[in-house]
Amino acid sequence: MRILIIGFGNLTRTLVNLLCEAKKGLHIPTLFPEINKYDVQGIELAGIVDVREKILEKISSDKCVQSLLKNDLDKIYPGLLLDDVPKHMNEFKDLSIADVRDFTNFLKQVNADIAILSINSFAKKTAIKYAVLLAEHQVSLINTTPIEIAWNDNISRIFKVNNAGVIGDYIRGYVSFIDILSILERPLRTLGFDISSLYILERRGGIEGFSSMRDKHMYIEKMRELLLEIFTPLETSYALDWKRFLKDDIINNIILDLKNPLSSLELSISMKLNESLLVALMLIDLIRALKIAINNGYFGRIEEICQYGFLFTKKHERDFFERINAFKRFLSKFS
Questions:
Q1: What's the rounded Cα separation, in Å, for the pair 239 and 48?
Q2: What burial class does residue 77 get, using C-beta atoms within 10 Å of its C-beta: 0-12 exposed, 13-18 middle, 19+ buried?
Q3: What per-residue confidence (pLDDT) applies to 236?
């Protein structure tokens, strides 16, 4: 499984580090270890693409990257950028940008099976151009950004015609506070308790996608009361900035008021999550599942995998258990 990384941020950097550790023999835990046919150690790094000059320099001197690319630094290449950069994004001042023809030649050279798109979310035109070029070269795509690609019927059709797969959009980690509520609600209901009110305090590095989360999840819509405060260290955190959204540490404090006819109970939960690590572990499952799908003739948008790993789906958001079971049913076809 040869993967091409497009956009080297927190998520893809963490994934590369995991692959390095796997090559050294470290066991990498995943939720679906039964995808035995495609072991984590079988994931190879085909190349890395980015438009930021400083990032390209850091990647070139990174020992982990060098070992995975076998010191072939020609596999580190400037990316495309067809969108205007927002003024507040200082990290995009010094850029190294390839033209489409040069990037196409690079794509032929690296011979990747799967690309992981993890660019900044302001770059919508660029993301779509990447998707079309990848599809035309029969490279399947995992879209981790909130830019609509997999659920864009026209784009997913291009992948299908070219015998490639596409999954996305907007990847999330294994566990969110929404999943914790989903898991807790079943035993609480069995014991006769009802969640009468919900209070959430969340601290993270940016807020991209959060309004979508509030709109998409019936859990929050069903609650009588929602108190949400977000503290951010950056004045520009309101911007659609994928890198800042993937800030490593996220702290959730949740207070549930539980009531039944005989008593009441207050349940307090505190979670500290390294979101980049959780999402990178999920990416390993997704890479292997996508490889299985393509090898078995599943092309275009592969909805069962999208339901497992991504927030936006055409149908209403499913709870944690339904997503896991849908993914299990998909994998069972090939066991």
A1: 25
A2: buried
A3: 36
Q: Which of 119, 93, 123 is nearest to 242 (CA)?
A: 119
Indicate the DSSP class of residue 205.
Answer: S
- What is the C-alpha end-to-end distance of the chain, expressed in Å? 19
How many whole angstroms separate alpha carbon 224 and alpha carbon 57?
51
Place of tokens 């033209």: 99
d(CA 327, CA 203): 30
Q: What is the pLDDT of residues 88-112, one digit of tens each?
A: 777 778 899 999 999 999 999 999 9
Q: What angle do CA 67, 68, 73 make, to 5 degrees?
A: 80
Compute the distance between CA of residue 71 and CA of residue 53 in angstroms, rounded to an integer. 19
Q: Exposure string (b/e) for 16-50, b if CB count within 10 Å is 16 or more?
A: bbbbbebbeeeebebebeebeebebeebebbbbbb
Torsions phi, psi for 332 (to 5 deg): -65, -20
What pLDDT band is residue 251 in, cutting at 50, 70 and 90?
Answer: low
Among the listed residues 170, 193, 169, 163, the one whose alpha carbon sits nearest the alpha carbon of residue 181: 193
Using one digit for the tens of pLDDT, what is the confidence trace for 122-160?
Answer: 899 999 999 999 999 999 999 998 899 999 999 999 999
> How many CB atoms sit inside 10 A of residue 203's CB?
16
